[in-house]
Structures are given as structure tokens and as C-alpha cells.
């Protein structure tokens, strides 16, 4: 499938609401019923967050197919920056057609331009489909992920 990927400006992030609703529903299943905010609240957060960057994948007709949410972070070990891919989602009917790969490739291209040392991300152990893709296109990191739950209502 041909998809077009471009940064989504803050004032357009409300367009993510339908995709965010699908993403939240899917993550509830993967994360054993964790509650989530409304898609409108999620899109509003992305619109006002000072550091969040969003890449949007669309088809030729302009239909949103998926998104990637990224952060440019300091990487003190290398005295450079790195990219953190916080969320990546492709609508179910567009999966298996290269959209996720294209979003990751766009994030890597962004990082190349910015001089990032690497792009990293975490994935829930229960997200089998995503893990299958990531195992094919990336190297598994030597890091463990830990979390301190501050708000029990937001637990994953």
C-alpha cells in the first residue's frame, strides 16, 4: 500500500481522535482492561504537549492509516540526542501493508537528519503482532524496562 507520511501540526492533532479511539480499545485488551481517556482528551494532550511530535500516515485519499508519537531526548552517554518512539499505531485494516514500517522509517529519517544516536521504544509483552514486526526490523535492546505507578487509575 502506498502511504504518505508527514508531521502532523499541533493544530491538526484533533484528526487523530478516531485512530486514538481504536488504539485505546486495542491497548485495553493488550493491557488487561486498563482504562483510558477519551480520544478527544488524548488528541488535546498531543495538541498542547510541548515536546510531542506526531507523524501521520495517510492513504492517497487522505484517510488516516496510522500514527507515530515521538520525542527528541538528550542522550548523555553519547552527548547527542536520541529518538523515543512512544506510541505507534496502524488501523487494523491497514496492517500487513507496510504502514508501520514506513512510520518507523520516517522516524529513522528524522533521526538521521537530527543526528540522533538511535531510536528506541518499548512495547507491552502482550502486543504479539507488534513484537513480531519489531523483531524483524530492529535489534532487541539490552535494557529492562521498569515503572513506578504514581496514579493507580492510569496503570498499564
From TrEMBL:
A Pfam family that the UniProt record links to this protein: Acetyltransf_1
Domain N-acetyltransferase per the UniProt entry, residue ranges: 6-151
Record key words, sorted: Acyltransferase, Transferase
Record PROSITE patterns: GNAT
This protein's record includes keyword Lipid metabolism: no
Coiled-coil positions: none
Entry keyword annotation includes Protein biosynthesis: no
Signal peptide coordinates: none
UniProt-listed PANTHER family: AMINOALKYLPHOSPHONATE N-ACETYLTRANSFERASE-RELATED-RELATED
The name this protein goes by in its record: GNAT family N-acetyltransferase
